Amino acid sequence: MDQPEPVRTPASWVVVGLDNGGTCNNATVLDATGQFLVDHLVENPSLVDDGPESAVTALADAFRNILELTSTPLTLVRAVGLDTPGPASATGVISSKGSTNFNQVSWHGFDIRGALEAELGLPVVYNNDANAAALYAHHRHFGDDAMKRSSIAAIVGTGLGGGVVESGRVVSGAAGMAGELGHVQIPLHGVLEPDQPIPACNCGFEGDVESVASLTGIKNNLLPYWLTRFPDHPLATEPIGKAAKLLRGYGEREDPLALAVFGQQARAIGKLFTIAANFTDPHAYLLGGGVVEAAPQFRQWFLNTVRESTELRREQLAVASFALVADLDMAGARGAAVAALERVKA
């Protein structure tokens, strides 16, 4: 990790961003000029497995810790941005069927945004974690022009998340579930081999983006098929879950099986972006996830394959850009803070 820059103290009013995860909360502070006061991860345990009461207390602890670290008086804080894994409503109520990291019954239908707002006595602005990362990616990519631009971001991890940003703001939808990009069903011609089974997603869909472009898609769908084509491959002797996690290392070494799998993932994302081109026509197509942490040559090949698989009209090619999401480990907290800042300024 690069040596963190010294922590700044605020010169004006601020907002705080809190990124809630399965094991840790990450916190940041953003001042009124759009400058972050910390340039590194600041984490504390999230305690989500201990239930809502403990988790909300842990978020409040993260809030107080980041203020102390940045020498920020509480009186300067105008609002707090919060993100959690979805699905949840636009106002931060966890799905009635639970959610990623929120499996206990006590979490079902829990208003985490409202609970944190009551705990802190400050306005809390909510986004799901993928939307928050997409929002930060958008603002990082466009800078001063962010409020005049649009983007779509696909974040490839265990699943596939992301978000749609229009005029610098996340499109959340009526129920807060817009931008569930992983569950967009895509045409599979040009993605699968002729004898390859239709991939199934844990959500119950077949042929959605996540069923191909995710670690779960590799484990459940892609790698079992490709190992039948490469039966002597070293990964054939590994448990499938471990083999899926090892696959990126083989891809970085240009292993034919790994490139076949990741090529299918990139083409699936290209199909998703082609739908976006005809639905929202964004200025930028942004890609994040494990591929961003890969060796430069491999991640550039992956991004190039996504770009080549995205069918754009000549007019769109002239104005659209493709880029990788920066600062991925901090993107959630930073996106949550950006959303809070824009709410205060509105």
SSE blueprint:
Layout: E1 14-20, E2 24-31, E3 43-45, H1 52-69, E4 77-84, H2 112-120, E5 124-128, H3 129-142, E6 151-156, E7 160-166, E8 169-170, H4 215-229, H5 240-252, H6 256-279, E9 284-289, H7 296-309, H8 314-317, E10 321-324, H9 328-345
Parallel strand pairs: 1-4, 4-5, 6-9, 9-10
Antiparallel strand pairs: 1-2, 2-3, 6-7, 7-8
Q: What are its keywords?
A:
single chain, 346 residues, 9 helices, five-stranded mixed β-sheet, 37% helix, alpha/beta, globular
Can you describe what's shown?
- The chain is α/β, with parallel strands linked by helices and about 350 residues long.
- About 35% of the residues lie in helices and about 15% in strands.
- The chain contains 9 helices and 10 strands.
- The strands form 2 sheets. A 5-stranded mixed β-sheet has the order 3-2-1-4-5, sandwiched between helices. It has a 5-stranded mixed β-sheet with strand order 8-7-6-9-10, sandwiched between helices.
- It starts with 13 loop residues before the first strand and ends with a helix.
- The relative contact order is 0.14.
